[in-house]
Structure formats: C-alpha cells, structure tokens
Amino acid sequence: MKFFETMARIFDRIVDGMAFVAGLFSIAIMVLICYLVIMRYIFSNPPAWILEICEYLLIYITFLSATWLLRQNGHVRVDLFLTWLSEYKQKTMRLLTSIVGGLSCALLTWFSFLVTLDNFSRKILSIQTLSVPKWILYAIIPIGALFMTIEFFRQAFSEFRIIKEYSHDLKTKSVTEKGV
C-alpha cells in the first residue's frame, strides 16, 4: 500500500507542476498580448507571430491544467438531476461518470498519440507565420489526456471504495435494527 501512496503523491506533485506551468503560460500570454497592443497602437508595427504563439500556448494551458482542475472538482457539472437521487445513487452516478470520463480520456490519449507520432514521423510543419513542427503542438494532448485518464480512474476507485463502505454500513445498520 505504501507504494501506491508514494506513487499518488508523485502523481499529485507532477499535476501541481503542470498546473503551475499552465499558470506561467497564462502570464506569458498576458505579457505577449500587452506587447502586441503597444506595438500596434503606439508603434504601428504589430509582430505577426504573437497571436500564433498565444494560440499554441492556449493548447498547452488546456491540457496542462485539466487534470488539476479535475482533481479540484472544478469542471462544470450538471447536478440538477443528481440532487433528486438518493445518496447511494449519487455516489453510483459519480462512479459511472468517472469510469466514462476515464475511458473517454484513454481513447483521446491513444488517438492523439497516434496523430502526434504520425506528424513526428512525417515531419509535418504548421505553416503560418512560424514554421513549427506539428508534433510539438500536439504532444501535450496525449500527455494531458493520459494524466486525466489516471485521475478519472483514481476518482472511480475512490468512489468505489466509498460505495462499498456505504453499502456495508447500510447492511450493518439494517441488521442491527432488525435485531433490536
């Protein structure tokens, strides 16, 4: 059990580091956009490459921070129907949504890895203002999706344990009540 706890701590540290880098990229976008505005309106000479860099950074921000946001339960949830369900059914729904999310992210990991590998092997470039190898742009997608896959399954495992304890407690309570 100590091994899994250590791996969970390492995973959490990596996720925190990824979110920190995403925050730095957000600051970089802010600085670049300010520079663009100054260059456009004061010097009438806006650099064409800034918007392209910001687009690329937005992809990285999304996939670097998504796992951290998932861990914080910060993603949008439609819980209108969940509030009508019993506590046990709510836990079951959270388990099911974690499994579906994990499977979806696993598919995204696999297919985005194949696309990234294909772009790497064929040396495809993004031809805009800057010529950037597309695999560099796509590489963060399978990495971020893999981390989200792991986090979804961690949450599913946690929900499973909670449901197991909850159902055990319900059985113990009903046996105790029948015995009284």
- Taking strands numbered 1, 2, ... along the chain, how are they ordered across the largest sheet? 1-2
Categorize the overall geometry: elongated
The main sheet comes to: 2 strands, antiparallel
Radius of gyration: 23 Å
Task: Briefly note the structural class of the backbone.
Answer: mainly alpha
The portion of residues forming beta strands comes to under 5%
Low-confidence stretches: none
| Mean of pLDDT | 90
Compute the number of strand runs: 2
> What order do the helices and strands follow?
HHHEEHH
Distance between the termini: 38 Å
Number of helices: 5
Helix content: over 70%
Describe the structure.
With 180 residues, this protein is mainly α. 80% of the residues lie in helices and 3% in strands. The chain is built from five helices and two strands; from the N terminus they run αααββαα. It has helices at residues 2-41, 49-71, 87-122, 134-138, 140-179; strands at residues 125-127, 131-133. The chain has a two-stranded antiparallel ribbon with strand order 1-2. A hairpin with a 3-residue loop joins β1 (125-127) and β2 (131-133). The longest helix is centred in the first third of the chain and has 40 residues, at 2-41. The two termini are 38 Å apart. The mean pLDDT is 90.
